[in-house]
Amino acid sequence: MAFTRRRPCGILLLSLLAASGSLSLAATGPGDVAVFWGRNKDEGTLREACDTGTYTTVIISFLRGFGHGAAYYSLDLSGHPLAGVGADVKHCQAKGILVLLSIGGPPNTNTGAGAGYSLPSARAAADLAAYLWDAYLGGSRAGLRRPFGDAALDGVDLYIDQGGVDGHYDELARRLYAYNRSYRGRLGVTLTATVRCAYPDPRAQAALATGLVSRVHVRLYGDLKCTWSDREAWEKWAAAYPASRVFVGVVASPEADKDAYMFQKDLYYNVLQFAQKAPNYGGLMIWDRYYDKMNHYISSS
């Protein structure tokens, strides 16, 4: 599985901490760095993100419209042209970088027909799973357009911030994971979830209960603040899902969330030095490539 490739998060933060005059960070534990891409056309191409050498996972975001029938599957890449994205996906994968598609995202302000997303029934979940498989993953279907051409993404991230708590995302997870039978021993569909920091996240709970979600990205930011401190919130998630790799999700700039932004030194001393001791610590999740590029939070380019 591509996502098992690891690198020390400490190394990535070392130069940043040294530059700020703080104590140097040792490579204290394994960890990947995941970044969301697709939220600002000024962030550069997917290929450029992968060529920084910083990220081990890039999460394309978002498939924003689903659950309203076949006519309303909508991909929102914030003005990025689709031409070339497929070639960039293959370029990233050739470097050993996992490329996922995130579905859902923050509530959509568009109120037109088919706006937003939901999974009101098991049938809707089955339809979405089949669509994702045939349009973005390893499948194909006559007459169905593949936005990224023949490039097959590595999996799906569930970023569910809209709709009721009774969405059928557990059925979606089971349907998507079942496609792994087509891959003869290797994982073809990796499932991850990006959750709110306060445990539990009711919208993600059913999907996580399937045991099929291999990574959990815990957002230590957002409009709903953590019920506990950032560290305590993260530790509750790590303890609840010991079989999943659990990531520390942070914003890369105060422009993204000034109240939740942590300087690199604070991130290490308040969260990472403790999180890295957990056996299922996975690494960092960065929101997002645009803010990281502008603020050089993790990436130098």
UniProtKB/TrEMBL annotation:
Keywords: Disulfide bond, Plant defense, Secreted, Signal. One of its GO terms (biological process) is defense response to fungus. Pfam families: Glyco_hydro_18. InterPro entries: Cts1-like, GH, Glyco_hydro18_cat, Glycosyl_Hydrlase18_Chitinase. It comes from Zea mays. SUPFAM superfamilies: (Trans)glycosidases. This is Acidic endochitinase. One of its GO terms (cellular component) is extracellular region. One of its GO terms (molecular function) is enzyme inhibitor activity. It is found in: Secreted. Residues 31-301 form the GH18 domain. CDD domains: GH18_hevamine_XipI_class_III (cd02877). The keyword tRNA processing does not apply. Belongs to the glycosyl hydrolase 18 family. Xylanase inhibitor subfamily. Residues 1-26 form the signal peptide. The lineage of its organism: Eukaryota, Viridiplantae, Streptophyta, Embryophyta, Tracheophyta. The keyword Nucleotidyltransferase does not apply.
